[in-house]
Design brief:
Blueprint lengths: L8 E7 L6 E8 L3 E7 L12 E7 L5 E5 L1 E2 L4 E7 L4 E9 L8 E7 L7 E7 L2 E6 L4 E4 L3 E5 L26 H13 L4 E5 L22 H16 L3 E5 L19 H13 L6 E4 L10 H15 L5 E2 L11 E3 L7 H8 L6 E3 L13 H13 L5 E5 L13 H13 L8 E2 L7 E4 L5 E9 L1 E5 L7 E7 L7 E6 L3 E5 L7 E8 L15 E7 L16 E2 L4 E7 L4
Parallel strand pairs: 1-3, 2-9, 13-14, 13-20, 14-15, 15-16, 16-17, 18-19
Antiparallel strand pairs: 3-7, 4-5, 4-8, 6-7, 8-9, 10-11, 11-12, 21-22, 22-23, 23-28, 24-27, 25-26, 25-28, 29-31, 30-31
């Protein structure tokens, strides 16, 4: 893993009283999470329903964040803040409860020590973007989501399969498991990891609404999620949550007061108060939505969260298009011509997520070369999001991905090379393959499959441009082709590997970002004991490489000294 530190969390405990308190002054870095805790022993009723807000206002009088306090147990309420602009901020709380009302303070946000520090994921027209640096700028973010739901030997457990599969969050209480899952995603060329929450919102490790009797958020679930989010964000890995599953398996809120009912709204307020100040996550509503939830209901869910979150987080719901949803998700199942499929979805003013989950060998399609080519075609189409990895049960196949280093090549080229720009336009007329061009014609990316040459049209560039070629079907290596004048050139690659799938970057891109990927090893799966915790008979669930039926952690084993 990289030496970058996770988000810092600074907490101040204040014994509240009926009179408002000055909570003092603090200093923190940009994108650093801060927390305050207020004691309140006089509350009555359901503590999760106690309403209290806090407004943070920047000295410029323009920027502000309105958030809510959340119940943290033991008569304490907390509120959080992440600075999105350097400068002086002030805050004040407001509540009908006198012990939570009128508390104020200041916090000075200083520029981030790490020049590469990154903030919240946002939408920029039909592309994902990330807040970066100290000046409020956003940069393109080419997202690829990774999941691991596979088992070591499904045949040994009759009746176990996808329909019975779920992911207990308690697995992620182990720091080694969190680190392993984050690293596994990077090793497979992805910069996002997936978690399905379902009724664990109400009771940790309870997936269905018939597995618990709670109507309140479970703070233990949130403690696990925020640890994962913070540690993943420190590695530039995003977390994508599925709020729910499907009604057939009772993985919905329908049995806990109903969709957007009183317990569900209570949960949504808690999500907004506790998780929203943390950068590094987005949320989809779930799957098989047409069977149990309407478009107006998911739109209401998103609108309610956005009204209360205070910080930007992208929300979507598969096949739903409500105006409060930030991205357009689909269930398309292409087998080839991924570029055309992505182009058909893009261009509608919101980012696009292919949420079918193109797991390894699913539908008899998704081997490594197909996965790799889809990643590249989605990127060249403008930046559609793909979803990769391993299923369990009936969709699971023997792994791992062969030639996973070719998937890492995609991440290294685009994210490591900072070559995914927000002002790209489709410029296929400039190549005999596919092409992207920046508005100022200072940067281009060309991509062509099954060829030993690529035509590049640099006309309009204001100066000669440096060209770098990468064989996308191999481990990452940059081939410096030299500097080329504006004009049309045919780049002969026959002496650099011959016929393959080639990418060529032309222009002056930002300095390469470090990504913690392990290059070179061939991965296999092995089982090593990690503990003696008892597991119920017949319970075989895997997430992030843990087999809870045998209390063995699945770990990648290298076939060489790497």
């Amino acid at each position: 893993m990289s030496p970058r530190l996770p988000l810092l969390l600074c907490t101040c405990l204040v014994a509240a009283s009926a009179s408002a308190a000055d909570l003092g002054a603090r200093t923190c870095e940009l994108w650093q999470l801060e927390q305050w805790s207020l004691a309140n022993a006089s509350w009555s009723g359901n503590p999760f329903d106690l309403e209290a807000t806090v407004v943070f206002t920047h000295e410029n009088g323009v920027d502000s964040h309105t958030s809510h306090l959340y119940y943290d147990g033991d008569d304490h309420w907390c509120f959080r803040f992440t600075g999105t602009r350097p400068g002086a901020w002030s805050f004040v709380t407001s509540s009908d409860d006198p012990e939570l009302d009128g508390h104020s303070g200041t916090i000075t946000v200083i520029p981030a020590t790490d020049a590469g520090a990154r903030g919240f994921l946002v939408a920029s027209d039909d592309r994902f973007a990330r807040q970066v640096g100290n000046d409020g700028a956003v940069a393109g973010e080419l997202l690829n989501i990774y999941m691991n739901l596979r088992t070591p030997d499904e045949s040994s457990n009759p009746g176990y399969g996808h329909d019975d599969h779920w992911n207990p969050l308690s697995i992620m209480d182990d720091p080694a498991q969190r680190a392993a899952y984050i690293q596994e995603a990077l090793d497979h060329g992805s910069n996002a990891i997936f978690f399905q929450v379902c009724n664990q919102w109400f009771a940790k490790d309870a997936v269905g609404y018939d597995d618990h009797d709670s109507e309140d958020p479970d703070p233990a679930t949130f403690a696990t999620l925020e640890r994962v989010i913070a540690e993943a964000h420190a590695e530039d890995v995003h977390v994508v949550l599925w709020a729910w599953g499907d009604e057939q398996r009772k993985w919905t809120p329908k049995g806990v007061g109903g969709i957007n009912g009183v317990p569900d709204r209570r949960l949504q307020r808690y999500i907004a108060a506790r998780l929203a100040p943390l950068p590094g996550w987005s949320m989809s509503y779930g799957f098989d939505l047409g069977e149990w939830v309407s478009g107006s209901q998911t739109d209401s869910w998103a609108a309610y969260l956005h009204q209360r979150m205070g910080w930007p987080h992208l929300l979507w719901a598969r096949k739903h298009t409500g105006s409060s949803l930030d991205a357009l998700s689909n269930d398309d199942r292409p087998e080839d011509d991924f570029y055309a499929v992505a182009r058909n979805r893009l261009g509608k003013g919101r980012p696009v997520v292919f949420e079918r989950r193109f797991a390894y060998l699913r539908d008899g399609v998704w081997d490594t070369p197909t996965t790799r080519r889809c990643m590249w075609q989605f990127a060249m189409a403008g930046g559609a999001v793909g979803w990769w990895g391993f299923y369990a049960g009936k969709y699971s196949q023997d792994g791992p991905y062969s030639d996973a280093d070719t998937l890492r090549t995609h991440l290294r080229f685009w994210t490591g090379g900072q070559r995914y720009l927000l002002d790209y336009t489709i410029a296929n007329e400039r190549s005999d393959g596919w092409a992207l061009a920046s508005d100022d014609l200072c940067n281009f990316v060309f991509y062509k499959q099954d060829s030993d040459s690529v035509q590049v049209d640099l006309q309009g560039a204001g100066e000669p441009l440096r060209l770098v070629a990468v064989n996308t079907a191999a481990a990452y290596t940059e081939i410096d082709l030299g500097t080329f004048a504006p004009g049309v050139h045919v780049i002969d690659l026959s002496d650099h590997g011959g016929t393959s799938d080639w990418a060529i970057a032309a222009g002056r891109f930002a300095a390469e970002r470090s990504i913690s990927m392990r290059d070179g090893p061939t991965w296999t799966w092995d089982c090593l004991p990690i503990g003696d915790d008892p597991v119920a008979d017949g319970d075989m669930t895997v997430f992030g490489g843990l087999d809870t039926a045998t209390a063995h952690r699945l770990i990648p084993v290298v076939d060489n000294d790497g």
